[in-house]
Amino acid sequence: MEKPPLTPTPRQIFGTNLRRARRLKDVSQEELAFRSNLSRTYVSEVERGIRNVSIDNMGQLSDALGVPLKDLVDPEMFSALGSKLT
């Protein structure tokens, strides 16, 4: 029996969109961490959806990339790009 596809959590949506937006802007994790005053390890964990990110840090990351926060939490915003940027 085939299992239905799992719905990504808001944390996973944010992380995936953050990674895709970062790659579209050709910014490394290290550069994003520097711009947002966060550690590279933290940025990596957020992108992988394993870190529970605060709204304040979400704002710092979106500002550092120059992407509206609402775009980073929209499940469909970067989905058209598919897995090419994941």
What does the model show?
With 86 residues, this protein is mostly helical. The protein has a single domain (11-72), classed as Orthogonal Bundle (434 Repressor (Amino-terminal Domain)). It is built from five helices and no strands.
Please report the total strand number as a whole number: 0
CATH architectural group: Orthogonal Bundle
The CATH topology: 434 Repressor (Amino-terminal Domain)
Share in helix: 40-55%
Mean pLDDT: 90
Number of structurally distinct domains: 1
| SSE ordering | HHHHH
Structural class: mainly alpha
Structural descriptors:
5 helices, mainly alpha, 434 Repressor (Amino-terminal Domain), single chain, 86 residues
Task: Please outline the helices and strands.
Layout: H1 10-24, H2 29-36, H3 40-47, H4 55-65, H5 69-72
Helix pairs in contact: 2-3, 2-4
In short:
This protein has 86 residues and is mostly helical. It has helices at residues 10-24, 29-36, 40-47, 55-65, 69-72. Helix 2 (29-36) packs across helix 3 (40-47).
